[in-house]
Amino acid sequence: MTRYDFLVLLHVTAVIVWLGAGTTMDLLFLRAERLREPLELKRAGDMMEWLVPRVFIPSAISTLVLGVFAGWDGPWSFGDLWILIGLVGWAANFFTGLLFIKPQAEKMPQIVAEYGPTSPQAQRQGKLLAVVSRIQLLALFLVVADMVIKPTGDDEGVLIVGAAILVAAIVAGVLVMRRSDFTEAPAAPEPR
């Protein structure tokens, strides 16, 4: 195994951890949403809060650093389109999490304390976080597809399809937020 192979192995492992953690968290939030149980949403939020500094940030940074080292050591150029798309996708994902999702998630406890866990305000904030997180996760899957396919400027079809998928997801997210009916949810039944 060459040093390049080893760096690519570590890079792909970091991506798997990052993508796997994001997919798992999305599934846990989806389950909690379907159950319509505020306590489940809180548990998922607590787990996310715990995982961000321990899994998401380290795996995201490892993905970048190991990818850059593999790029320097391998037969690729940082001017290759697929590498530029990967770097832009990494930055978009990382900074969306850091500059939007994290601050918005930090508002949730205050919203719940002020208005209640089933309030329209809490529902709106939770839906916003879910929509943006799901678009972010889709974008990360598209970056993985980019890394596997390695499109060049001659692969217009691949590039158009990837961009169309991302745009469609953003439009769908906006429509979900606009069409959502944020009304007071019924109280959960008391345990017997």
Any overview of this molecule?
The protein is mostly helical and 192 residues long. It has one domain. It has 5 helices and no strands. It has helices at 3-35, 38-73, 81-115, 120-149, 156-179. Helix 3 (81-115) packs antiparallel against helix 4 (120-149). The termini are far apart. The model has no long low-confidence stretch (mean pLDDT 92).
Topology:
Layout: H1 3-35, H2 38-73, H3 81-115, H4 120-149, H5 156-179
Helix pairs in contact: 1-2, 1-4, 2-3, 3-4, 4-5
Give a short overview:
The chain has 192 residues and is mainly alpha-helical.
User: What is the end-to-end distance?
Assistant: 61 Å
Shape: globular
Total number of helices:
5
Mean pLDDT: 92
Strand content: under 5%
> How much is the radius of gyration in Å?
19 Å
The unreliable regions are none
How much helical structure, as a percent, in the residues?
Answer: over 70%
Which oligomeric state applies? single chain
The description of the largest β-sheet is: none
Q: How many independent structural domains? A: 1
Structural class: mainly alpha
Q: Number of DSSP strands?
A: 0
Order of helices and strands: HHHHH
What characteristics describe this protein?
82% helix, 5 helices, mainly alpha, single chain, globular, 192 residues
